[in-house]
Structure formats: structure tokens, C-alpha cells
Amino acid sequence: MGVPGASISKPSTGEALMKGHTGSHALIRSDRGSMLSLSDDNVMMKQILATHAPDGREFDVRPLLNLVEDILNRATQHVDFLVKGTTQAQIEMEEKALQASHIVMLEALTYTIDRIASELSYKALGGSDAHATTTAIFNLLSSYTWDAKLVLSLSAFALNYGEFWLLAQIYSTNQLAKSMAILRQLPSLLEHTAPLKPRFDALNNLIRAMIDLTKCVVQFTQLPSTYISQDVPVLETAINLFPTAVYWTIRSMVACATQISNLSSMGHELGISTTESWELSTLAHKLRNIYELLKQQLNLCYQYIEEKTDVAFYQLLLTLFDPNALHIDNMKVLKALIYDKDDKLPLLDGATKRRVSLDVLRRKNVLLLISSLEFANDELAILEQIYNESRIHATRLESQYEVVWIPIVDHSIIPLPEEMQTKFENLQSTMPWYSVQDPLVIKKPVIRFIKEVWHFRTKPILVVLDPQGKVVSPNAIHMMWIWGSTAFPFTSLREEALWREETWRLDLLVDGIDPTVLNWIKEEKYIFLYGGDDVEWVRRFANSARSVASASRIPLEMVYVGKSRKREHVKKVVGIINAENLSYAWQDPTMVWFFWTRLESMLFSKIQLGRADDQDPMMQQIKKLLSYGREGGW
To answer: Domain named Sieve element occlusion N-terminal: which ranges (predicted)?
Structure first.
């Protein structure tokens, strides 16, 4: 178990327990017409704590609880079955509750369960005081932890209640069951099921509250002790409530047992008295109050554990991606980034639209395309064009990579709002490469790592991993914009080599954008690039340039490249250029966007390589051209 049985010391060393119990007075007082005065409550809890002497033995109560819950769930549905004459199909109990090791555990506990069952039945028939019966059960369970006390008591109650309803279910078709049912006066009871329904509804409501509270207490025992200990305040507060929770749950079992016993001796008094109704509803209300308090603490514990595990996971990522770390392949790092323990197929293949495992990326160069859901259509269109071109010649060296989309979403809003989920699915449907099937498989520590180590902000980045999972480029998006797949394997060394081969020429500016301009270059024509959003200036420039070229017999071509911003203004200017046949202009706004984005990428690429020297002629030309994109006409 995680928190070891949530065991608590005996009164001689348990002052913290009494403090915790005192802190629950508000709970007791808030109940409707509290069943005990404050002083009685103090005395009662001292008696209960005096019985608590765990001997250190621990066992996993969950298999037994699964079995008990199955019994009680089926039993509490028999009233509707008898009244309506039908019942819904039941889900078969999990086979894990019947594993051999669990059978051995049950054999060891059978004697204790039988003793409690006998205590419940005997005291209920004798009309004993409920508190005295509850205390007697605590004495029987003195050596067990708080969660075990709950589950063993509930097992005993389920044994009695399940037997009662088993007879009711089969007495009409089984002679042995019929004889036993007559002894319990079941036939006369079952002839009047409709008037009895309010009584059983009250019982079932209380039984449901007993199950919920028991499961909640057991959940505390499963918390991982690696990340949370009993002295952590949020857990300590919950543990101090355990005695109160266990007492009132067992007290409720006693009340239910009394009600069942009374059914056999009530004659024709089929209704439920006001006193009985008040007792059952008050107990249910009390258990719900305790449950809500414990559930709140449990959620705080989960939050505490999540914070601890997130820190540990973040440290693991730092270790995995350490430049000196050695890996056989890329599987370990990919599984850390894209992790879902319940999902063996966390990726969607953009080509086939089928879910696939991470194994499709084993020992491959992987480009992690990291972005928010605000992915510009221009960026997506150009990336898709570059990617599709690389797939045409799949055997070429520069095509030996895979792209995986890693969407970054806000984990504080879970589940994702429908609008965000739709946006994710729409983006995913357009991508020809791999993407994660669910954006939530990218956990919070991974997002923190991506932001703090890989410096993701808002714009998409392209992190490159080699076949061993080592980062060879923290952001190859600029290389991709400038050289496309030619930049493979997208390492910093490759980036430097490509720059050494480049000179400031028109080919560099328009490569991959427009083959028409490249043809003009081959034809050795004079080419003007011009831009701006001032229509009158554009008219004057285009007409003047054309006149000069014509007079000088110069083979001149002009290309309008717009501006880096003001997209709508540029579209209007392009429309006028077309209408008046002023010059050549790119019709697709994406081409205009790509021209300016490639220029910015050239600048960022130089900066990323530490080559942003203002004396570098190419840097000077890049900056000059970028400055034109912010001016009027040029």
C-alpha cells in the first residue's frame, strides 16, 4: 500500500487524533438535530480510540471491497426488480476479485467477518443500544487499521444483507430457499413490496453512502508514500477524521441491520415510522458530510502528489535530454515526451488517418513540430508543401525524417472545451505527418520543459532529434523556411555549412516561392523587387520603371512583394496591379507571407548561430530589406 493502512497510534500516543476529532465538531453540530451532544461525542470517541491497537499487519483491502460492492450493488437493486418485475443487465464482477491470492486472503479473514456478521444479527434481534453494538464491533477489530475495520465490517453487513435478498430472488424456484424464506417471513413481505419501497429506498440511500465513504477512506491508503507522507498537513487532516468516519459508518451498518431484522417481525406494519426514517436519513446526511470533507482532502492530496511527480518528471526530462546522455535509440525520450500509460497507440498517422504506436519513429530522425492551436494557415501550407515534396523522393537522404505535431494546450481547463477540441481536430485533419492523438498526452512537466529549455513561446518551433533521441537543433524552423528539406539533417553544423555556400543573390530570396522569377534569372533579365501599400506610389514607380526600361531597351521584369504586414492592404494593391497590368505580382497571399518570413528566418538563423555580425554584408542586406517591409513604398 501507499500510505501504510493509514494506521493511527493508540490514545496514549495519539493526542493528534483527539485534536483532529475536535476539529470535526463543526461536522457533528452541522447535522440535522445531531444524534449526540458535544460532550457525549467526546466520550464516545475516547471509547473508540481506546479500542484501536493495530498490530502492524497490513493487507490490500481492495479485492474484498470490490466483492462487497458487487454484493451490495446487486442487493440494493432488488426492490425495483420486485416492484417492476424486471432488472437491468449487470456487469460481471471483475475477475481480479477471484484471483487465488485473494481467495487465500478471504480464508484468513472469514472468521473475523463471521463474528462481525453474528454480532450485527444478534444485537439487531435483541434490540441492543446502537452505540454499544458499534463499540463491540470495534473491540473485535482492535488489531486492524482504520480502512480494514471499515471493509471487514462492510463485508459482514453485505453477507447478511446479500443473503436476505438472495432468498428473496430464488425462493419461488428453489425449495430449500423457499423453506428458509418462510422462516424469515419473506413471502408475506414480498406480497407487499410497493408499501415497503420507501423503507428500502431509505436503506439503499444509506448503504450507498456507506460504500462511498468506505471507498474514499481506502483511496487514502493507496496514495504513494514516495510522494506524500502522513505528516503532510493535507493527509494528516484526513487521517484525523478516520476514527469519526469509521465509527459513523459502522454505526450506520448497525442501523441498517436493525431495519432488516425488524422486517421479519413487523407483521402488517408495512410503512416506515417517522423515527426510523429520521434515523436513516440523519445517518446518511452525516456520512455524506464526512465524505465531502474527506473527498476535499483527497483532492488536495492528489494535487500535492501531482506537484511532486511533476517536479520529478521534469528532472527526468532534464536528465534524458542532457547533451552527454547516451541512448540506444530514441524510444526512451519519445515515451517521456508523449506519454499515456493507458494508450498504446498515442499517434495519428496523417497519411492513413490511423492510430499508430511510437515504434513507427524508432531510430529515425524526428522533427517535433511544437505549436499552440493558433497555427497560421500560411505556416501550415508552406510546411505541408515542403513535407510533401520530400515524400515524392522518399529514398533520398534529405527525405529521411518524420514530423510529429506536438500541440501545446492549457492543462488548467480539463476536459478541453468543445471549441478547443474542435480546433485541434480541424488542424490535425489537415496535417500529412504524425500528430498526437490527444493533446492531453503532452503532460504539464513536458510543456514546462518545452517552454523553459526549448524556449517555446507562441510561434511554432521545430525541434530536431537524431535517431538516438539527441537534440541536434533546438529550432530548425528557420532552416526549413530558408532551405526546405535540403537542410537535412537540420543540425547546427549543417546550417553553418549552408550559410558558407550562400551569397547575397535573388535566388536566395525567392527559391521555393516562385519558379517564374527563377526562370527570369536564367534568362538574365533585370528584375526589380518592389513593395509597399501606397497605391499611387506603386502606379508611379511601375509606370516610370517600365518607361525607362523600354527607352533603354533593357529586358526588365518587376515583382510586387507587398509588405511584411497589412495583408488586406496588400491584397487590394495586387488587385489594382492586375487590373491595370502594372507588373507581375504574387496572387497567393501565402507567397507574400513566405517571402517576408524567409527573410526574418535568415536573420534569426544568423542570430541563433551567433553570426549576427553587423559588418557581415549579407546581414546588412537582410536588415535593409526587412526595414523596407515596414516603410511606405520602396
So the answer is: 39-322
Given CA atoms 51, 55, 58, 63 in this order, what sign does their dihedral have? negative
Per residue in 355-395, pLDDT (tens digit) is: 999 999 999 999 999 999 998 888 898 999 899 888 887 67
pLDDT digits (tens, 9 = 90+) for 445-461: 999 999 999 999 999 99
List, by residue range, all CATH 3.40.30.10 domains of the chain. 331-482
Secondary structure class of 434 (helix, strand, coil): strand
> CA separation (Å) from 504 to 277, 498, 559?
90, 13, 18
Which neighbouring-strand residues pair with 473?
464
The 10s digit of each residue's pLDDT in 152-176 is: 999 999 998 888 887 777 767 777 8
Phi, psi (deg, nearest 5) at residue 24:
-95, 5
- For 509-526, the pLDDT digits (tens) are 888 788 888 888 888 889
Taken as a whole, the chain contains a residue count of 634
Q: Which residues contact 42 (CB under 8 A, 6 or more apart)?
A: 21
The residue type of 216 is C
Confirm if 631 and 531 have CB atoms less than 8 A apart: no
CA distances from 404 to 134, 360, 364 (A): 61, 11, 12
pTM of the entire structure? 0.76
DSSP, residue by residue, 371-417: E-S---HHHHHHHHHHHHHHHHTTTSGGG-EEEEEEE---TTS-SPP
First-to-last alpha carbon distance for the chain, in angstroms, is: 74
**pLDDT at residue number 400:** 84
Separation of CA 622 from chain center = 45
Per-residue pLDDT, averaged over 396-413, amounts to 87
Q: What is the CATH code of the structural domain delimited by 331-482?
A: 3.40.30.10
Helix axes 242-263, 274-320, angle to 10 degrees: 140
Partnered with residue 612 across adjacent β-strands are none
How many whole angstroms separate alpha carbon 294 and alpha carbon 217?
8
List Cα–Cα distances, 333 to 97, 199, 363, 405, in angstroms: 37, 59, 12, 16
Average pLDDT score, the chain: 83
Model pLDDT, residue 81: 46
CB 150 within 8 A of CB 64: no
Which range, 480-489, 530-539, 603-612, has the best average confidence (pLDDT)? 480-489
The closest of 115, 155, 156 to 139, measured between CA atoms, is: 115
Q: What's the sign of the alpha-carbon dihedral 349, 355, 356, 361?
A: positive
